[in-house]
Amino acid sequence: MAKGTRDLILRDRLQFDVDGVGNTDLLYGRVDMSDFVNVVKREGFAVKEVRYHVRDPQNPNGVLDPLLVGAAGTFSSLKLFCTTTAYENIEDVGIASPDVISLLEMTSTQVIAAATGEPVAFQNQWTHFGTPDLHPDGYNIVSDLLIGVGASVVSSAVNQTLEIDIMIIGEPVKLNEADMTEMLTQGQDL
User: What does pTM read for this prediction?
Assistant: First the structure.
């Protein structure tokens, strides 16, 4: 998305640990939006785009190994999302979930040859449902943003700390009464 004349670009970096099995239970990082939102003054922020960059600072050049799975015959996944609602279970988060602004899913699988038991093929898939897809006109917020992350069997990053760089593009907006009524629940859900 091209940056508009009133658009601001916000950046943040979050870290999360992958355990000895390659898992990370649902964690949240908070992006402080208090400089841009004020309910009393009816000031909000229209999130137009959220970009994620997953990094592995232990690897050369900080590049994440795209083959998340290291063990033969397993399925690995990494899920990132931006929301204003704190979900208790990452399994409940999808593009139809209330207040989900952006969603990224990364998966890796290995195909094992039946005769030899050796890996013969790998499949990586990244599916990104960006803000322009889910909320083409932007998503108005009056609260902080939450960035959720969870990992399952990411054996290529066992016992490591990974990083997520986040870029948020949006613009400050004035809100009318109808906007305020609809969005005041955001602050209660955090």
Answer: 0.87
